[in-house]
Amino acid sequence: MSDTAPSPAACAACAVTPAAAVLARHDARAQEATILLALPGIDGAVGISAVERTLRGLEGVRAARVNLTQKRVTVTADPGVDPRTLTEALAAAGHEARELDADSLAATKTDRAGRDLLMRLGVAGFAAMNVMLLSVAVWSGAEGATRDLFHWISAAIALPAVLFCGQPFFRAAAAGLRRGQMNMDVPISLAIILASGMSLYETAHGGAHAYFDAAVMLTFFLLAGRYLDHRTRAVARSAAEELAALELPRAARRTASGEETVPLSEIAVGDTVLVRPGGRMPVDGVVIEGESEIDRSLLTGETLPVRAGPGDTVSAGEVTLTGPLALRVTAAGRDSSLHALTDLVAIAESGRANYRPLADRVARLYSPGVHILAALALAGWFLATHDLRLALNVAAAVLIITCPCALALAVPAVTTAASGRLFRRGVLIKSATALERMAEADVVVFDKTGTLTAGTPELEAPWSHDPQALGIAAALAEGSAHPLARALAAAARAQGVAPGAVDALREVPGYGVEALQNGVRVRLGRGDWVGAPAEDATVATTWLKIGAGAPEVFRFTDRLRPGARAAVAGLRAEGLAVRLVSGDAERAVSAMAAELGIDDWTARATPQEKAALIAALGRGGHKVLMVGDGLNDTAALSAAHVSIAPASALDAARVASDMVLVGSDLSALPEARRIAVRATRRIRENFGIAVAYNLVAVPLAMAGLVTPLIAALAMSSSSICVSLNALRVAPPRPDGTPRRAPVAEPIEV
Length: 749
Fold this sequence. Notes:
Layout: H1 12-30, E1 33-38, H2 44-56, E2 61-67, E3 72-77, H3 83-92, E4 98-100, H4 112-139, H5 144-165, H6 167-178, H7 185-204, H8 212-231, H9 239-246, E5 250-255, E6 258-263, E7 272-275, E8 284-289, E9 292-295, E10 306-308, E11 313-314, E12 319-320, E13 325-331, H10 337-352, H11 358-385, H12 388-401, H13 405-424, E14 427-429, H14 434-440, E15 443-446, H15 448-452, E16 458-459, H16 467-477, H17 483-494, E17 503-508, E18 512-517, E19 520-525, H18 527-530, E20 540-546, E21 552-557, H19 564-573, E22 577-581, H20 586-596, E23 600-602, H21 607-619, E24 624-627, H22 634-639, E25 642-646, H23 651-656, E26 659-661, H24 668-702, H25 708-726
Parallel strand pairs: 15-22, 15-24, 22-23, 24-25, 25-26
Antiparallel strand pairs: 1-3, 1-4, 2-3, 5-6, 5-7, 7-13, 8-11, 8-13, 9-10, 9-12, 14-26, 16-21, 17-18, 18-19, 19-20, 20-21
């Protein structure tokens, strides 16, 4: 056996295989497509499994993974797989799905900033513990060479830790100075640098005191405040990006040679676009062929579908339910009504970003004052003693004792405590300033459909129909995608009613469903189609006609959300004016307002009109709390002073809001308002604690009676007091009942 190593060329296959494998994997990835689908109705592990199982069973689908938080499924498939095949398969399985444009969505960012802060916090804590152990040895009486050795060991631990852990403050301070601004991080950085520099100077010159422990403790407490602040901020995508992702990336265009699927960017005004049943309109246009019922709830909030036929106009984002349509394009891409709504939301978001938090307002006055005091201490002691070393020690003590650690903790400590209490009540805070703005609100504007109501029709009970007629109605309803038909079919299944046997079932777009039952024609649909008398428009109805018999009516209702009455009453008891603004019909809105005791209501409001109403209230000096769930509410949610969306809301509405109502019970809203008011009071108290502490501590430090170490301990004590005060965020009463306040008068715009 030879002792020499084999030549690299001895096994050509071995040398080539790894590279070939890499190239093969690269080619495989290049030959696959990623399709994103929105799943508005996905809920729970059962739904996740059903969606993934349905998609994986389709030809060409390689993988499917559902994200329940974002209500999306990411599908990896062969390049030739049509997304419509996926949505149709999911619809057949009972799952609503819509294609999203992956290129329009911002990539979901991992929380690198949070992990970075947490890592630096851990390093600072570890360094602080070790340096404090060495400091205890010095305090116990170590002198001479032993003391100097401990100081140098402390320096070896503290200086790298301070340089590494203080990076967030150093970078923020440098950025502020470059902009000509004096933010909180400037005095923080100076205090850390001065304490470390003075300690190194004292150690190098054999001084009796070094303050590495103060520098590291200061860094640790400040990082704790910064991490708490980061945790209260939601890393949310822009609502405008979510709306843009709802725009279909492709459309089916009719040409002289037939139908072709092209990118939306290639669609021009005057082209003919085809939309199949269940599909969303990719463009604004005029119907030239076909009839269907259009679901406009996404854009207008209308509860019931409306009929559309030749000559009627439709908008991008609307859904055709019952029949195929051919549209002559009037606007596409950036010119469509959906994109106009996207721009409106982006403008509203930028306007709300001008809100300046209370902590920032305090920092504008606090930071210059700290530097002035430290400079005065340095100049005064140097002029009095001509001892630069002593003057620098006093200035360092002033900077450390006035370091805004308590101020840095004042807001995040309270918001973290309040966020925990609100989350237990089913309210999730997404914005760092949401509590402050919630406490300032004096007007509440509710959307109707999907917000105060469940958003889906339910068949009224008890039923007066005989089981046979109900079975026929159920059989007809199973053959339709109309919301009322689906509600009827679901109610029949829930009651154990088996669908009757029918033949030749077909849907008549815009009218209803018909079939033959033992040779007799049966119909389920619009009243005028089956010869029924006119009904009150405030009630959703569908009619069943069997042969020549008299039509029978099925009435539907959109039930109130749990806690809707308690929410309205509780907010009014808190002194807030309540308004109802909806895109639904006037009679339906007025009936809902009367049921809930809301005097101010607006019906048939477009998304632009909702946003304009919110803006008008703002110009009138009011702070508006908007509660909505639909695409038609996103602009108003963004324009409001503060906003809340239910968890069942469309992704774009949830992203545009400051808070999300995790549960379905609206009664948590009054308590959220009370906690917000109390949290804001605690924040102001924390600022008061910080100011009182400085009024006592600063004169002592400037008088030279405080060493940097004692200054660090005093600063830490003030931070602990602030944190303990933050824990006092709680409802005013143990039973959660609202305190009484005068009921506000209706607001005139």
